[in-house]
Q: What sequence folds into this?
């Protein structure tokens, strides 16, 4: 294996370890749930992306051909991390943030965390005539 | 050199998984627990891939893909359950 590839793989692995540790440590250290959401969703995602690129390079150096499995996992994780973060933020807001604390949605209906989306079935308790 | 870097990365992600476990037991809200569990899945994924590099086999990628997908779906299912009291309405 050429020296330069070995150095690059080692650097990527060290960066990955540091970012993964920072992400997990931030979840312990930060004070509020909404602050804690930042550390794992960003730092850990960079960490795992770095691990996967290191693995890709290692496979290329050992076997001589590129495999795109790692890129597939990286793409999947980078796509799903914001969705996960959004869902967790909504879970927190539904229980711990009052409706009048958030800004107005600017539409006819409120945020879906507090109100049902407009296409939902009418609620028999609040809309008795429907 | 790669062996040392691998050991370092494995140690970092293992320590991270322990910290996740701490946050998961501590809470205090259910959102924290879901977040800790999701991060734990990502850390487990990283450990699996690092072990694959250590062993020099590409076998662990299939498992990594599966864990990534199952982790995402389970996180969304937990959040839906917390939000709506039901997973599929």
A:
């Amino acid at each position: 294996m050429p020296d330069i590839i070995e150095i690059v793989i080692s650097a990527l692995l060290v960066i990955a370890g540091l970012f993964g540790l920072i992400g997990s440590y931030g979840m312990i250290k930060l004070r509020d749930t909404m602050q804690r959401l930042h550390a794992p969703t960003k730092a850990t995602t960079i960490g795992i992306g770095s691990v996967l690129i290191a693995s890709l390079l290692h496979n290329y150096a050992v076997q001589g051909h590129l495999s795109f499995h790692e890129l597939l996992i990286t793409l999947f994780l980078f796509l799903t991390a914001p969705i996960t973060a959004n869902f967790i933020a909504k879970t927190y807001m539904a229980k711990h943030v009052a409706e009048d604390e958030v800004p107005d949605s600017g539409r006819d209906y409120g945020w879906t965390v507090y109100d049902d989306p407009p296409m939902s079935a009418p609620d028999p308790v609040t809309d008795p005539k429907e | 050199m790669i062996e040392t870097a691998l050991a370092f990365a494995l140690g970092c992600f293992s320590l991270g998984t322990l910290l996740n476990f701490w946050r998961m037991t501590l809470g205090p809200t259910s959102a924290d627990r879901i977040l800790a569990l999701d991060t734990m899945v990502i850390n487990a994924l990283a450990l699996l891939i690092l072990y694959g590099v250590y062993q020099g086999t590409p076998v662990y990628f299939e498992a990594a893909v599966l864990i990534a997908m199952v982790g995402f779906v389970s996180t969304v299912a937990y959040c839906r359950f917390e939000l709506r009291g039901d997973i599929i309405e």
